[in-house]
């Protein structure tokens, strides 16, 4: 079933839409450029590239129509009205892609978490490409063929030409609520352990690089799953804390972000890290996490070196024990 909510303040000019898409495309390709090149490929990685390419294609289309205003191509007349139409179709498509994308990405990590090879087999890469293509085709099919969505598009098209109302995704909103709720619950359950671990942090040099060392004492009375949760929270929030705060503010203020904006590469990498943390925690007993799995996430290092400082010696050990989480 299709769900969407209307943004209260619609886009009013093609120029504003052009500037928004320009900023989004720049941000998409910036994130793809700064990510490490030695990251093991995954479904989410392929989908992030597809989102960036689709946004770039939409930007080129908007620019072309904006510059020539009224022209015919392949027997179809294009006007500034099509700028709004393309944006509405994109918003409706993006708004229904969140659940299937996150489900497929989660299943991908759950089934491949123990793989250490950075380069999957060719069949696996082709499967990722096939899954991305199927998701995009299904999304556009639902947008253009499902009666409820088609009626929604006609209602939006009936608005005054000076306005361009777009949709906000209910799927994205529900995912944000679920993530904030889960993170808040985890922090409430482990806030003491997280605080103790952070207070023990020391900045030292290891292999000519600055690293954080955390004092850690094994507690046999604490479940391994709960100890792992503490480390996952530190890893995740150490990178994405500003993004989590932003999500909380958006939810508290009730801001409705257009669907063509909230489906972006930084958001997908944020979801990617959350999915990896969830899979690590679910499979802490069922998977042997090896060194190669640390390269799955482009922006979060899921490995800690816990070196006890009980003896007062601040010199790092030659070969500190690595705890993979």
Automatic annotation (TrEMBL):
Transmembrane regions listed in the UniProt entry: 16-34, 46-68, 80-105, 126-150, 170-189, 232-255, 267-283
Query: Can you quote a single GO CC term?
Result: plasma membrane
Kindly state which keywords UniProt assigns to this record, in alphabetical order: Membrane, Transmembrane, Transmembrane helix
Q: What is its main location?
A: membrane
Compartments reported by the entry: Membrane
The G-protein coupled receptors family 1 profile domain covers which part of the protein? 23-280
On the tree of life, the source organism's domain of life is: Eukaryota
- Is Chaperone set as a keyword in this record? no
Q: What name does this protein carry? A: GP160 protein
Which species?
Sakesphorus luctuosus
Q: Which gene encodes it?
A: Gpr160
């Amino acid at each position: 079933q299709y769900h969407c909510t209307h943004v209260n303040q619609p886009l009013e000019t093609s120029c504003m839409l052009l500037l928004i898409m320009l900023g989004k495309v720049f941000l998409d390709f910036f994130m793809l450029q700064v990510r490490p090149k030695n990251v093991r490929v995954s479904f989410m990685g392929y989908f992030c590239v597809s989102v960036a390419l689709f946004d770039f294609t939409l930007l080129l289309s908007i620019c072309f129509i904006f510059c020539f205003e009224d022209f015919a191509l392949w027997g179809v007349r294009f006007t500034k009205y099509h700028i709004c139409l393309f944006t509405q179709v994109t918003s409706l498509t993006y708004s229904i892609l969140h659940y299937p994308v996150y489900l497929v990405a989660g299943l991908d990590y759950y089934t491949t978490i123990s793989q250490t090879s950075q380069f999957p087999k060719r069949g696996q890469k082709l499967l990722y490409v096939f899954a991305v293509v199927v998701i995009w085709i299904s999304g556009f099919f639902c947008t253009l063929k499902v009666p409820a969505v088609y009626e929604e598009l006609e209602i939006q098209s009936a608005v005054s030409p000076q306005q361009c109302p777009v949709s906000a995704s209910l799927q994205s909103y529900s995912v944000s609520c679920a993530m904030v709720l889960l993170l808040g619950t985890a922090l409430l359950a482990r806030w003491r352990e997280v605080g103790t671990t952070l207070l023990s942090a020391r900045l030292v040099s290891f292999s000519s690089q600055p690293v954080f060392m955390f004092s850690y004492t094994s507690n046999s009375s604490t479940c391994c799953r709960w100890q792992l949760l503490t480390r996952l929270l530190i890893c995740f929030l150490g990178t994405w804390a500003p993004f989590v705060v932003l999500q909380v503010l958006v939810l508290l203020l009730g801001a409705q972000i257009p669907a063509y904006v909230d489906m972006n590469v930084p958001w997908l990498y944020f979801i990617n890290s959350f999915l990896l943390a969830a899979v690590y925690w679910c499979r802490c007993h069922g998977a042997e996490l090896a060194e190669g799995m640390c390269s799955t996430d482009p922006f979060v290092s899921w490995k800690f070196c816990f070196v006890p400082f009980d003896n007062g010696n601040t010199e790092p050990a030659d070969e500190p024990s690595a705890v993979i989480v």
